Amino acid sequence: MATNHKTGYRKRHVPDSVRRHLAAKYGCPPGGAIAVPCHYCGKVAEMMWWRRMDGKPGYRVTFGGHEMDHLIPEILGGPTTAANLVLACQRCNRRKGHKF
């Protein structure tokens, strides 16, 4: 868990199941990769839903430099669900902070 040095707030871990739901929300097929834009500025990064060694879809999803951002901030009670998460570049995510 990462701790914000200014507020002392500790972010919760995002489960792999939520990462997979977020990948499906953006249209990334299991075992595939797609280009995804930042929710705020449109900067593109590659989302990958990794395959296992046997070729079946794995559990790992990566966002190629983008970060998961809570639309309703976690610190304000926003749930860690695919419906409340979007992908944002680091610059936009940091700029938004704990605002709506």
How would you portray this structure in words?
The protein is of the alpha+beta class and 100 residues long. The protein has one domain. Helices cover 18% and strands 27% of the residues. The protein has helices at residues 16-26, 90-96; strands at residues 33-37, 44-51, 57-62, 67-70, 85-88. The protein has a three-stranded antiparallel beta sheet, with helices on one face. The longest helix is centred in the N-terminal third of the chain and has 11 residues, at 16-26. 18% of the residues are buried.
Strand content: 25-35%
Whole-number tally of structural domains? 1
From the spread of the alpha carbons, the general shape counts as: globular
- What percent of the residues sit in helical stretches (DSSP H or I)? 10-25%
What letter string, H or E per element, gives the SSE order?
HEEEEEH
Number of strands: 5
Strand order of the largest sheet: 1-2-3
Q: What is the mean predicted local confidence, pLDDT?
A: 88
* Count of alpha and pi helical runs: 2
Q: C-alpha Rg, in Å?
A: 14 Å
Secondary-structure-based class equals alpha+beta
Which stretches of 5+ consecutive residues score pLDDT under 50? none
Largest sheet: 3 strands, antiparallel
What's the end-to-end separation, in Å? Answer: 22 Å
